[in-house]
């Protein structure tokens, strides 16, 4: 049983890396980096803006990586920064009109491809994928809570 579980983990790791590589390649074909894609997702989802810290937390990205990408997007005129009313120490990152158009276009293309994949998988397999991933994540967290480490 342990050998079978080890082999399943190897397959899981391979699929995990392959999935990341597929998304990296997709982003590259569309003229952006994988991390830029993730940041555009965050900004597009939050029309009222979000902080750099929120982006870092959402995607588990280093602060320097996020800052560097945002500075590049600022130079391209795709984002702007506004002091937040509720916490004047932080700035919200907002898409400009051209940034919103670009993000909407990129994300729409990606989601069209993802929807087509799910359509081809079928509703039952797509739902099973989501349920099983959620179950894996929940059980992994539970095991982490029981591993004796803080």
UniProtKB/TrEMBL annotation:
A Pfam family annotated for this UniProt entry: MarR_2
Top-level taxon: Bacteria
Keyword Nucleotide-binding: no
Keyword NADP included in the entry's annotation: no
Boundaries of every HTH marR-type domain copy: 2-141
SUPFAM superfamilies for the chain: Winged helix' DNA-binding domain (SSF46785)
InterPro entries from the UniProt entry: HTH_MarR-typ (IPR000835), WH-like_DNA-bd_sf (IPR036388), WH_DNA-bd_sf (IPR036390)
Keyword tags: DNA-binding, Transcription, Transcription regulation
Residue spans crossing the bilayer: none
Protein name, per record: MarR family transcriptional regulator
């Amino acid at each position: 049983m342990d050998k079978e579980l080890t082999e399943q983990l190897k397959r899981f790791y391979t699929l995990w890396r392959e999935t990341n590589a597929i998304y990296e390649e997709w982003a590259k074909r569309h003229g952006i980096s994988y991390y830029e894609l993730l940041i555009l997702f965050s900004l597009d989802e939050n029309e009222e803006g979000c902080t750099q810290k929120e982006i870092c937390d959402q995607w588990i990205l280093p602060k320097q990586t996020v800052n560097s990408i945002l500075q590049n997007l600022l130079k391209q005129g795709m984002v702007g920064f506004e002091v937040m009313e509720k916490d004047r120490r932080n700035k919200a990152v907002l898409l400009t009109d051209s940034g919103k158009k670009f993000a909407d276009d990129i994300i729409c293309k990606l989601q069209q491809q993802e929807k087509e994949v799910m359509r081809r998988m079928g509703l039952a397999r797509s739902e099973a994928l989501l349920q099983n991933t959620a179950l894996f994540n929940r059980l992994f967290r539970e095991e982490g809570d029981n591993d004796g480490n803080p």
